[in-house]
Amino acid sequence: MASSNSMHLIVLPGDGIGPEITAAAVAVLEAASDRFDLGLRLEHDIAGYASLERHGTTVRGELLEKVRAADGLVLGPMSTFDYTDESKGGVNPSMFFRKNLDLFANVRPARTYPGVPHHAAQDFDLVVVRENTEGFYADRNMESGGSEILVTPDVCISMRRITRACCERIARAAFRLAAARKRHVSIVHKANVLKIGDGIFIEECRKVAAEFPEVVVDDFIIDAMCAHVVRAPARFDVIVTTNMFGDILSDLTAELSGSLGLGGSVNAGTRYAMAQAAHGSAPDIAGQDRANPFSLILSTAQLLDWHADRLGSATFAAASRAIEAAVEEAVAAGESTPDVGGHFGTAATGAGIAQRVRAMAGTA
Ligand code: NAD
């Protein structure tokens, strides 16, 4: 049962660097719970390779029931590219939870930080709001079966699903967010080619825009948008787009901000939400205490903010802001991993953020 003075989360560390960055994120969550008296209950379980070895599947069906009895989950990155055969237990856990919990909004902020070298022409602070439940994703846009069909060994057809209902709800999530930020939404699409599907997407976004007259709206074709965000990212606030464009564009904006390891990401529905780093399992640096934990730590801050918004809890909102502020202070002080200019390992970076959160002034 959701409560404004408690939150119950399932923690699944994942593959590759997952266990290392999840341990760092858990240290920070525990610090936030102590400092802000959040009553956070973290229940640890496994998914990914550890689960495949022990249970014969990367994600057990009963995990869904566990998460449904909670408020959401923290999901570490998974080596999904290696899970080739669902019949042998290789299910993509990210898809599994996004689809079964109807986590329709993938919210992926990207911003520059003082002291962190970045790849953009200017400082910026924007959010990509990506539709998460349909589009070109063969594994989630059909009730049963996938939407990639091998017609002959040399011919494949990939189908994209676009529905008015999903366009409308992602647009509403984007406009609500923009109303609380810089009041600007950019609709990103490819309606010059995908005339029907992206035509529906633009129409639904424009309908929702009419309910938010204080929010400025513009729209861009995805290819041109890639040039615009590289050239002048500061002109953007909230970018709303369909699934695959959002997936790609948000990696670009995260990397522009300094590192893919700096991009937080929450997958939000109405009843549940899932914190998930924007990057993958980075097997090339796994087990070396080199992985940047900021993405998952910032994702957990977003998860607390989602809970705050759902329950109108100023305390959870303050805890979320404290984690973000602690990350900002840590990167400015060089207390971070080498990929963002610091000299700390993963565990020490997490411990440093946790310590800053515990010492953080300010309350709800
Ligand atoms: P990746 O994001 O794991 O790594 C790309 C590059 O970025 C690598 O050089 C890696 O070392 C670096 N990197 C990533 N995260 C980092 C971090 N936190 N700190 C420092 N450096 C970091 O992408 P990939 O190599 O293409 O994929 C590896 C596996 O992850 C694949 O199996 C892929 O399918 C999977 N994947 C999973 C998710 C997810 O679970 N959400 C997302 C993307 C990719």
UniProtKB/TrEMBL annotation:
One of its GO terms (biological process) is isocitrate metabolic process. It comes from the Bacteria. InterPro entries: IsoCit/isopropylmalate_DH_CS, IsoPropMal-DH-like_dom. GO terms for molecular function: 3-isopropylmalate dehydrogenase activity; isocitrate dehydrogenase (NAD+) activity; magnesium ion binding; NAD binding. Keywords: Oxidoreductase. Its EC number is 1.1.1.85. Belongs to the isocitrate and isopropylmalate dehydrogenases family. This is 3-isopropylmalate dehydrogenase.
